[in-house]
């Protein structure tokens, strides 16, 4: 999702606020205000503006997938035989509700999609690939790779 066209340019205080929230979305407004040198009310006003401008698009929760029974993670690359907008949109809409699917990346290049999935075991992965992917007529190639470790940066990209 792109920021609203009428949003104002980000200044260094906005970037500091975003960096703080990007590192830990649970950081309190009071703590952020202290870090960026603003009164809590001014800081909250900026955060609300960043949300209204759709620069802050939500917050997420990281969980231990093993605790939920997701003992294996995999990246699955997929090539489709049909690339029209409806086929692509339907493919994504059909996959996202599956509890195994963590992320769907629509790609350019020699693969069309990269799925990040979590499953209980290798049989579950095999069944997911056969039942949800290769059974679809628009899918013409699937490759799976196991994820040994997954980490996310907590540093906000700044360009």
Give a written overview of the molecule:
By secondary structure, the protein is of the alpha+beta class. It contains five helices and four strands. It has a four-stranded antiparallel β-sheet with strand order 2-3-1-4, with helices on one face. β2 (101-106) and β3 form a beta hairpin. α1 crosses α2 (29-36) and α2 (29-36) packs across α3. The longest helix has 13 residues, at 40-52. The mean pLDDT is 93.
Unreliable spans:
none
The fraction of residues in strands falls at 15-25%
The total count of helices amounts to: 5
Helical fraction: 25-40%
Biggest sheet character: 4 strands, antiparallel
Total strands: the figure is 4
Major beta sheet, strand line-up: 2-3-1-4
Structural class by SSE content: alpha+beta
- End-to-end CA span: 18 Å
Mean pLDDT: 93
Oligomer description: single chain
Write the element-wise H/E pattern from the N-terminal end onward.
HHHEHEEHE
Shape: elongated
Rg, Cα atoms, Å: 20 Å
What are the main properties of this structure?
159 residues; alpha+beta; four-stranded antiparallel β-sheet; 36% helix
Q: What is the topological layout?
A:
Elements: H1 12-23, H2 29-36, H3 40-52, E1 72-80, H4 85-95, E2 101-106, E3 113-119, H5 122-134, E4 139-147
Antiparallel strand pairs: 1-3, 1-4, 2-3
Helix pairs in contact: 1-2, 2-3
In brief:
It contains 5 helices and 4 strands, in the order αααβαββαβ.
């Amino acid at each position: 999702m792109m920021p609203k066209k009428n949003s104002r340019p980000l200044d260094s205080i906005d970037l500091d606020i975003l960096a703080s929230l990007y590192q830990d979305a649970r950081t309190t407004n009071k703590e952020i205000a202290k870090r960026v040198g603003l009164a809590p009310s001014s800081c909250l006003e900026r955060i609300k503006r960043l949300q209204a401008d759709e620069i802050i698009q939500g917050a997420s929760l990281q969980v231990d997938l093993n605790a939920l029974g997701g003992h294996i993670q995999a990246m699955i690359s997929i090539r489709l035989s049909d690339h029209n907008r409806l086929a692509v949109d339907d493919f994504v809409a059909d996959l996202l509700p599956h509890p195994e699917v963590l992320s769907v990346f629509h790609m350019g290049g020699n693969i069309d999609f990269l799925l990040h999935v979590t499953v209980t075991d290798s049989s579950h992965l095999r069944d997911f690939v056969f039942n949800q992917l290769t059974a679809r007529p628009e899918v013409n190639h699937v490759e799976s790779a196991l994820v040994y470790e997954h980490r996310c940066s907590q540093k906000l990209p700044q360009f």
